[in-house]
What does this fold into?
Amino acid sequence: MCFCFQVKAQNLILNASFEEYTKGPEKRGQIEYCKYWYGKGITPDFYHKCGYYKMENVTFDYTQDPFDGQGVCGIGISFPFRLRSDTIFREYVMGTLKNKIPDGAYFMKLHILSQPSNRTNNLSVYFTSDTIPKFDGYAKNITPQLQFNEWIGSYPNWKRHTGCVENITNSKYFTIGNFNKPGTDSVEFPDINFSNIIHFDDLGLFKIPEYTKVDTTIVGNYCVILDSIVNEIPIYHTLNGDTIHDRICIETLGKHTVRSFVKGCDKIIKEINIDIINCNSALVCSNVTLRKNEEIELRCTAIDSNELSIRSLSLYDRWGNLLFQQSNPDIGAINIPKFVNGVFMYKMEYKICGQLFTKIGDVTILE
It folds into this structure.
C-alpha cells in the first residue's frame, strides 16, 4: 500500500519575488514602483536589475544577486543611536494576498539577505483585512500574528526562514517589520555605524492541509512512500513516535501509527493507524470441553469478519472417520451434533484476505 501527498502549490502572495513593476526604480526608497507592495514606514527600498540595483547601507554598500528573478525589497528594522537621535525609527513594507484567505493554518517562507555584521530576532508579520496607515517611526499598539523567533542576519548569502500562522481569516494584506516596543529590541550591532537593514526575496504563503485520520487493517506488511514537501511546505514523519525517513516498510504484526508534521511548527496534518495482521492467525476457535448430552458449540472469532468466510466444517473421530460435515456455516457459534464421550477433531476451511486456509482443532466430550 502506498500513501503520499500530491497537492499543487498555490502561493497566496501577489508578486512574491518583486518582479512586476510599474516603473523601474531609479534610486533607493521607491517601493511604490513595485506592483502590489506599499511602503508603510519611511522609505522601504525596491531594487530591480531593470532599473536601480545597488543594495546599500547608510555607510556600507554591498551587492548580491536576487535569490529569484531580478527584484529585491529591503527595509531597516532597527537603527543604532549613533545614526539617528530617534531610536524608534523603523521601516515597514506591506504586501498583498491574492484573495481574502479562509480559516485555517498557513505556512510562510521568505529568503533573507542581511548585512554581514548585524543581526536581529525582531522580524514579524502582521496580517490585516484592510490596508494599514503609514507609520512615522514605530508602529504602535500592534501585535503581529507571526514572529520569527530566530536570529536573522550575520550571514553572507540568502537564507530561507519559515513560520506557521493561524487566526488570520479574511486577511488580504500583510506587513513585515519590527513591531517590538522601543527599548525591547533584540539587536546586535558589532559595528554601531551600521543600521540593521535586511533584504528579502521569494516570499510565499501556503495553506497547510487540514488534519486527516485514516484507520486501516493490512495483511502481511505496510510499505509507504511519504512526500517530504507539500505545497512547498517541508514535512517530516514519525512511526510510533520516532522520526522516520520518507520510505518505510512495516512488517511487525500489531498496531502502528504514522504521523506527518509540518517542519518548523510541528503541526500534525496526517495520522494513519495501521493494524497489521497475519492471515494464518486471523481466525481463533476455542477448544471445547463439555459434558455428554450438552449442546456442543464451537465458537470462532475472526479478527476482521468482513474479510472472512468459512467454506466448510468437518468433524472426525480419533481414528479419522468423518462424523459430520457442514458447508458454509455462519461465523460465530457453530452447532455440532451430539456424540458419545471422547475426543473429536474438527477441520475448518476458511477464506480470508482472498486466500484459502485450513484450521484443525479438537472437541472433548466427557461422561
